[in-house]
Each structure stands twice: as C-alpha cells, then as structure tokens.
Amino acid sequence: MIQDFITIIQDYWLLLLIGQYPNGPLGGLANTLILSALAIAFAFPVSILMALARLSKWWFLRWPMTALVYVTRGVPLLMLILWCYFVIPLWTGADVPSFLIMLVTLVIYQGAFLSEVVRAGIVSLGQGQMDAARALGHGYMSAMRFVILPQALYNMIPSMISTFVSTIKDTTLGYVINVPDLTFAASQVNNQLLTQPFQVFLILAVVYYILCWSLTFVANSVERRIARRRAGPRNARLPAEAAPLKTITEQL
Amino acid sequence: MNGFDLSAILTNPDYISMLLHGIQMTFIIYIGSWTLAMTLAILLLALRVSPLRIGEPIVAAYVSYHRNVPTLVQLMLWYFGIFTLMPQGLSDWLANNNAEAIFAVVGLGLCQAAYFSEDLRSGLRSVSPGQMEAAQALGHGYASAMRFVIMPQGVRNALPPLINHSVSLFKNSSLAIVIGAPELTHAIKEIENISFRTFEIYMIGTVTYLFFSLIIMGIGAYIAMRADPARRARA
Predict the structure, then answer these.
(1) ipTM of the predicted structure?
(2) B76: nearest CB among A70, A201, A245
(3) Which pLDDT tens digit goes with each residue over B134-149?
(4) Within a 13 Å sphere around the CA of A134, how many CA atoms are in the beta-carbon half?
(5) Which domains, and CATH codes, for chain B?
C-alpha cells in the first residue's frame, strides 16, 4: 500500500504539479494556486465596491447589490458556474477558456461574500469615524479612502486569508467544466492507472490538506497579532484564547 | 432556438416529473446528511468535553481534516476510492441500493459534522464559567447544570452559525452531481440536454435553489427568534 503511494508520486508528480504544461495548458497545483490568487486579487476591489454600493444612499446602487448578495448566498456555486459557462460565451461570442469562466465565477462569488465582510468591517467602526472625518473637511469619498477603509481593511486581513483558503477549495468545482486544476490532474492520473483510485484521491486530499492547513495557520497567527495590537500595550499579554474569533469563512 | 419561454418546460409533464424527482433526491440527501452531521457533531462534542485525554486530539484531527480538504475531494475519495476498497458483499449491496446517494449522504454528513461540532463548541465556550459555578452552588449536579443552565445558553449562541451552515449544506448537496447522484442539479443538466432550453431551465433551477435556501434561512430566523430570552420573558 505505502509502495503504491510512492510509485504514484514518483511517476506523476510533474503532472500533479504543473499539468501537461510544456505540451499543453498549464494545470495541476500551479494552476489551482494561480486561479485562486487571481480570483482573490480581483475579488478584493470588487468586494469593496460592492460593499460601498450596499451602504450607498442611492437605491439604484443598493438594491441590485443586495439582491446579488442574496442570490449568491442562496444558490450553489455549481449553479453559478453553470450559468457563467453558458452565458459568457453567449455574450462575448468567443470560445472562452474554462479557466477564465471559472475566474469570473469565483470573482463574483467570493466578491459577494467578501463584500459582507467589508460591510461588517465598515459598520462596526461606527458612525463617529465618518462624522469626525466629515467635520475635518473630508468629502464622502475622501473620508472613505483615508479614514474608514484603512481601519476596516486592516481588521479584515484574517478574513481575507481564510477567504483565500475557501477560494482554493472552491476551485475544485472547476472540475465540472474541465478547468485543468489539481483535481483535474488527479482524475487524469486515476484514468491512466484505473486500479488505484483510493491511493490517487488520498494523495489529492493530502495535498489540499497541507495547502489549506498551512494557510489557515497563517490566518490564525495574523489574527492573534492583530487582536493583540488592537488591544493596546496594556493588554498585550492577553492569552490567545481571549482573542475573539472574527474570521468569517464560507465553507466548501 | 426560439425566444425565452418558460412554459415550454413548465407545461411538459416529463420535465416536471424529472424536476420533482431531482428536488426529492436533493431533500433526501439534505435531510439525511443533516441528521447524520448533527448526531455526529453532538457525539464529537461530547468526546471533546469528556475527561478522556484521547478525545481532544481525535476530534481536533477529525475537524481539521474535514475543514481543510475540499468537500468535492472528500466525496470523490468516498465514491471513487473507499467504495472500491469495501468487501465484495457490501459493495454489491451498495451498488444495488443507489450507492451514489448513500455516499453523498455519508460524505456530506461527515464533512458537515466537523462544522456543526465547531459551531456548538464555540457556542458552549461563550457561556461564562461562572454560570456553571453558580448552577452548582444552587445545588445542580454536573449533568443537571449542563441540561438546564449551560446547554440552553450555549445552543442559543450557536444558532446563527448553525443556520448558516445548514444553508450551505443545502447548497453543497449539489456537489453530489459529481459522483452521479440524481439530485436537482443533475435533473437540470438532463433537462438541458434534452430540451436545449438552457436559459429557461437554469432560471428554474436557480429560483428553486434560492426559494428553498430562503425557506431554510427563514426557519432558522424563526427558531432564533423563539429562543430569544427577551421575547420569552415578554410572553
């Protein structure tokens, strides 16, 4: 049994790592990481805009965004992927690669979830910050830019990292539309071997586990550091247990 | 391709019966895995708070595995991997009894149990230790204090995340399509393949999922409202 694992890793580590890259599209673990990094990089500004739209005083910004957030919260990601897979080629009239479709889906989905985190961060600062900034002569946008968002976003860093973890887990769903990611590579290996599905999928699970566990570990230590800094020097020696766990995760 | 026409699907009895079967299977998977997850979560929590030394690391490892491995990979490991390792008699029986749905229930349920047990644990942890001391000072034993003082408060604190995770379990039931369970998403894909009315059937599927998700959120909000002590004191 152990021998099987070693043989599979020895034979297929390159396929699992970069897919068929020199001869075909980039795939495997590298593609999973690139896809999730790009998704989070785009989802971040999108989520700030969405949060601002949801807090806006104009109904034509607030209502559609609220509806979008509720739809993304109530509909499975798989359904959203199927929608994008159908609609994007229809609108653009081009043969869009599944990688891009998955990227757009993830940006919408994670953007909607992150926007709730951003909104909670802004609301939790309280009205006083905004009033004070306005009293000092900042306009709305400038108060947001220089006073509200820097504070709100700093508190959000742990949530951002855990959103990155859930994005990595979400990329597995690209399997349904044949995005060449790690899961896809593993099922290719499985199709070549045919006889050892348990070993192949256990290796897959272990790789994801190591990846997500280490990122969660980073998120937790950053969170503790931020909680300590916010508590101020007097309470600097608060036990880690006392730090409130604010990290919001969307599971998948 | 004609224009947008919902009635082409909604008036066709074949499509309606496929949709209804899909919804039925989605609910079988959802209710089955929810029940399994909640039962297991309570057992895990009991093991974690029990004085047994060995309980803590076992539960921590269980939770860590199920939270850090994508649900889809867990389902694939169950259906493509563990299924093949089972003894012949058992796997034959499963194959004759809708193995896809059974593995969807088992995979989703085991995964969700990790989330539920963490929700319950953080709910219980947020009850201050003074409550236990006060209850014991009033003459409650450990079990009775748990039953009448700690648990009611802890479960109430755990309700919001439990509701959120119940909704995401419902959404995750769509992952069962990957291992071939004939649930709602599967039915939608099938109708799409037959009718070529992609836009209409996706619309119907999205609205169906949204409808049931909102109902689950509503039930959750109702339970949370009923459990609110301020409202109870008034009644």
Answers:
(1) 0.86
(2) A201
(3) 999 999 888 888 888 8
(4) 7
(5) 7-234 (1.10.3720.10)
